[in-house]
Fold this sequence. Notes:
Order of helices and strands: HHHHH
Structural class: mainly alpha
Amino acid sequence: MSTPHRSVVANAFYGVLNPIPFGCFVAALVFDILYLRTAVMLWDKGAAWLIVIGLLFAIIPRLVNLAQVWITSRRSALRADRLDFWLNLIAIVAAIFNAFVHSRDAYAVVPTGVWLSACTVALLAIGRIIVAVQPSAEGGLVHE
Length: 144
């Protein structure tokens, strides 16, 4: 099985933009935990903004991933790439629900917002781990 041929420009956009949502969602989780512990509204509002920014930055990498995994190289896409796609999609859906939860007033965000933030981060982290340890077609590990 040959390695998938992927666009250099698409890979560049994916490589630059894909870490941004993960960082925003991790920061939102930290802010949610701080809000849970302190009840200072600043942390809740900060988490809400980080979730929205993470969702906005998640659009382009997911579209690139959609095209590369399911359209242009669907025959040569690895199982780990497909699983990563689905985990990211589920994480984005959880983040959308989390954005709605964070639109509530004051302490109504707790504990649902914390759990949704934790689920989003866990799903994204699992997807990254799966892709990082996926075997290549030659039998070794893929190092990008």
